[in-house]
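Notes continue from the previous slide.

Worked example: a multi-chain complex. Inputs as given:
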Amino acid sequence: MSKRVPLEGSFAAAEAARMADVDVIAAYPITPQSHIIERLADFVANGELNAAYIPVESEHSAMSACWGASGAGARTFTATASQGFFLMHEVLYFVAGMRLPVVMTVANRAVGPPTNIWGDHSDAMSARDTGWIQIFAANNQEIFDFVLSCFRFCEDPRVLLPAMVHLDGFTLSHVVEPVILPEQEEVNRFLPKYQHPYVYDTDKPMSYGIVMSPDTYAEVKKAQDITLRESKEVILQAWKEFGDIFGRYYSPIEGYRSQGAKTLLMSTGALSETAKVAIDRKRDRGEDVGLLTLHLWRPFPFQELYEALKDAETLIVFDRSISLGGPGGPIISEVKSALFDRRRDIKFAGLVGALCGRNPSVEQFEEIIDRGREIAEKGSSEVLETIGIRG
Amino acid sequence: MVQKESESILRPNWQDVRFGNIFPKAGTATRYKTGDWRSERPIVDREKCNKCGLCWLYCPDGAMEILEDGYYEPDLYHCKGCGICANICAKKAITMREEGA
Ligand code: SF4
Ligand code: SF4
């Protein structure tokens, strides 16, 4: 029997790694992710998890150790946030390029300066082009489910790519919610053993991370891009099977009261839960508006986006990170470009807010929708529209 | 697939390099000719050399070879001509001579 227990988001992530029976954890603490790796350290110390726990001196080393462990055939997990995430940035590319299925949770936090610890998606967005699969969780159950399912599709021989599960710092990492934990036997049924076809083996030495000249580099990069794009089908299959076993089904873009709605708000991560209440209130007042929660950020779910917007006339995208000097938030930019050739009829509004833990209330989400509709109708003199910022 | 060891190694299609950063053999760098990067080559003067092996130890490319008689000579297929061996030699037994001079 599965059991329903109160867990903060960090512990949900740690439970998923424990139940996935990870072999190696290499991590360095940073707020707001520290509870994840502290919990895992407890599990290892108490004998609840048989894993090698490598306490390293930096995040660059953490990700480097994950690279080695995963390449040697170990199921590998780590967690980070914000500045620590940036310190491992260089190695992120290598883990993806080496086709290693490391799974990492990122307790999303704003980027300094100003020095801070609170949540937004600026750290996540900096890793857009690293080649990792990237998924945003909106609640603690999703953290557990996404971490667990990541091991499944990342280790699939057709994928063999790393994934990061983004969870909003504090809003999820430090908030207790009920989480359904499955039976270990169900997890074992869902997760086969990890096997890498080119595992590090001193009896069969190979050359890893070789130099590439202008004659070969581009082919390798294209192969990497296609592999990441093709991983979407495997992710969908894994989520289908996850649903069949655990009873919860996931999709790259989750709709909430969105069927047939003429106006849609798109949001990412935990704030979607608040946005849902705002949608309910607006629906109660007879307003034709629904919500799309973007779960899968990489590979970008083009087809699912087209389908989700089938009946929509207006799309308001709420970005939780700011692209300084750029064409708006990262998500609105990509959504617009994905739709440019297909849906010139859609009216867009992009709004940036909720930076550094300034989480909008339900009322403020209603304002976001109202302001978004206004921009979509009348246009805006600003390239990048912010909301909830004084002045 | 990993790059296959064939002619297509040099100009593979993207379909052949899904695991492009892995080459299914070890020690492959030895087959990579770096000797043609060289503009100067080390010349060892056996009169001065005391067979200490510092040049062998310091060569960043492992290009100094120990000969049967205990003396050292650069492997010119790999030697890049950096001059580190000449610099480190306490007996000043190595001089760098310009290629083609
Ligand atoms: S360092 Fe100089 S003295 Fe020593 S082995 Fe090399 S050439 Fe001879
Ligand atoms: S010149 Fe440089 S590469 Fe050549 S043998 Fe000396 S140290 Fe090695």
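Summary box: Chain A has two domains: 3-246, 253-378. Chain A has a mean pLDDT of 97.
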